[in-house]
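To the wet lab folks,

You asked to see what we're planning to order before we commit. Fair enough. Below is the target structure as tokens, and below that is the sequence we designed to fit it. If anything looks off to you, flag it before the synthesis order goes out.
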């Protein structure tokens, strides 16, 4: 009989054989670019080990996502994630829970975390990236995030496990979790719905999400349709300072 440690080793090697296929850029381009800086809206992509989530400021939740505030403590930002129901909610991940998440089709849950501070302050030292969406792109993203929740006939969500201080809450979600459709595949799809160029098929790891998000940010700075703003040229480089008369000798 194979020992538990050996079973874990065999499983990890199997997963590692699949994961190198993930995170390849699909070559898609940015969509819904804002016409002016005033139309830009900030979101954050945050990596938590093997999982990546998306955070929005409270003022951008809108009617699509504002319902989550009823179930959580007040926050300045709200992070959204999706994952396998038992694995995501487990206080301790056991071998059976892990095996079920890897090899079976399973129900999913949404996870919402309320932050009293900015993502950079809340998760110091964590890998994160700020992306700019247009109002149209953000609307598409919020519609996709809302569609990930499961609602009853009265359009009420199904709340599940919660944090002791109301800092997080799980909800029943739409869609099944598979090893080929992970939390990070979901995150890539959400970002793509907002116009961010993402591979929505082979992105299984959080590293793949973050790599593409950072590449997308650089491309966005290059594509900005408006001119110099706040000392930054359209390509994302600092605008050269104009020589003043006093500088000329």
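Sequence we intend to order:
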């Amino acid at each position: 009989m194979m020992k538990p440690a050996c079973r874990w080793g065999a499983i990890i090697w199997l997963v590692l054989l699949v994961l190198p296929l993930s995170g390849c850029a699909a070559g898609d381009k940015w969509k819904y670019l804002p016409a002016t800086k005033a139309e830009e809206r900030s979101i954050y992509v945050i990596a938590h080990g093997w999982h990546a989530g998306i955070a929005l400021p409270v003022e951008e939740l809108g009617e699509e996502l504002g319902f989550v505030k009823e179930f959580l403590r007040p926050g300045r930002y709200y992070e959204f994630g999706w994952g396998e129901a038992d694995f995501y909610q487990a206080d301790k991940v056991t071998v059976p829970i892990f095996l079920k998440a890897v090899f079976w089709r399973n129900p999913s849950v949404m996870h919402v975390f309320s932050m009293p501070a900015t993502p950079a302050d809340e998760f110091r030292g964590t890998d994160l990236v700020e992306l700019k969406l247009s109002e149209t792109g953000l609307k598409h993203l919020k519609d996709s995030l809302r569609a990930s929740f499961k609602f009853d006939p009265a359009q009420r969500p199904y709340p599940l496990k919660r944090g002791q201080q109301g800092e997080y809450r799980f909800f029943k979600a739409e869609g099944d979790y598979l090893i080929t459709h992970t939390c990070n595949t979901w995150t890539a799809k959400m970002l793509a719905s907002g116009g961010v160029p993402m591979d929505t098929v082979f992105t299984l790891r959080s590293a793949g999400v973050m790599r593409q998000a950072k590449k997308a940010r650089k491309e966005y700075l290059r594509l900005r349709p408006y001119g110099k703003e706040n000392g930054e040229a359209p390509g994302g480089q600092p605008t050269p300072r104009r020589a003043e008369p006093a500088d000329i000798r």
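Structural context that might help your review: The two ends are 84 Å apart (CA to CA). The first strand starts at residue 41 and ends at 48.

Thanks,
Computational group
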